[in-house]
């Protein structure tokens, strides 16, 4: 029988206390092993992702395997620099002296993944945790069972089992995991469970990174390059059948331009997925029947420009465009997280920031325009986890940019050094010399000492 969850966490902690994970060579070895795992089992990973979500190999490589490999290579390249002491200046009052920031591992951390990119959303945070020198327990999503089982089989074959463990399971197991004491928790998923995670973490005063979702707007101005804009919107929205946290949730467009844009999107959809996307090997399926029913319910009493076709046995919903939905309908009040794109027309595109600001802060915001004035207006007057101008999810390809939400779309960040820092304590260190120690700061105080102190500040 496998060890209980509590015993697994204790055993990880014991290993962490040996200080083995502080060694940069050990970390590099683990990262290389993870890379090897993705290389040696590429086909099996594709197969599991296809079984869970119907992903094509191209999509699986781009957004899961290749993406993770880039993250590992980037971490290997920069690990030495990231882990070095970062020099700071020292004020006059503390001279002679030196100051620096010394990153140190947090300890034993927990990573909880989501089902939509079940491979990389679990393992990219693990790359950061390894790079920063932590032990980790990872919990894949039970809603993508094939990828979960594959990770549970492969990870122990490649990584040091004393430092890393996988717990599979659903609510019962995750609840048990969350009772344990971790030094950090990174959770990816929806808002409701995010609150459960944060509540459980508060029992141990454990800091959390919450990678949540929300309704990411896509503003399209009539001066955009229509052909490229339509292609990039369709790529971002219908990759993984819209089950992407940073997919455009809805489009805001000027009334006079709405028909032209809708037509261009429909043309691109046909170009990408054919006249019947059900038969396209590049179009994904919906994760399960519950989510399919949820998505189907969004279409009640809406005006469809295209799509709306559902085939339950295939977990299929066709790419769907909705024209000017009721803003108080569930379609516009909940995160869609599926292949439905509402097109909302505004009298003037300059109203877009106000529309966005009336709602929760999104994870991502997209703007297609050639106008610098509009770009500045949107950047200055809205808040979002990330913004991409003239493209969709492409910003995710840059490991130099932090990835995370703001407000209801999440807290904290990772990717590249941002992930390393999330899983590190940035320890402040000051070292003073003792050869010079004048008494201005020591009692008994007098006016002259105060005058000197003020001068030194
Ligand atoms: P999910 O159902 O896979 O749940 C996420 C994790 O929480 C799973 O590991 C699951 O086992 C666990 N969980 C579920 N119920 C629980 C409970 N009661 N107690 C403890 N743990 C529990 O994923 P989901 O929530 O359906 O994911 C979709 C949401 O995730 C969307 O809102 C999406 O935008 C967001 N998301 C965000 C990101 C990001 O990086 N910011 C990425 C992907 C998805």
TrEMBL record:
Residues forming the catalytic site: 211
Domain Aldehyde dehydrogenase: 10-429
Signal peptide: none
Swiss-Prot/TrEMBL keywords: Oxidoreductase
Pfam families in the record: Aldedh
Family: Belongs to the aldehyde dehydrogenase family.
Name of the protein in its database record: Aldehyde dehydrogenase
Organism: Lacimicrobium alkaliphilum
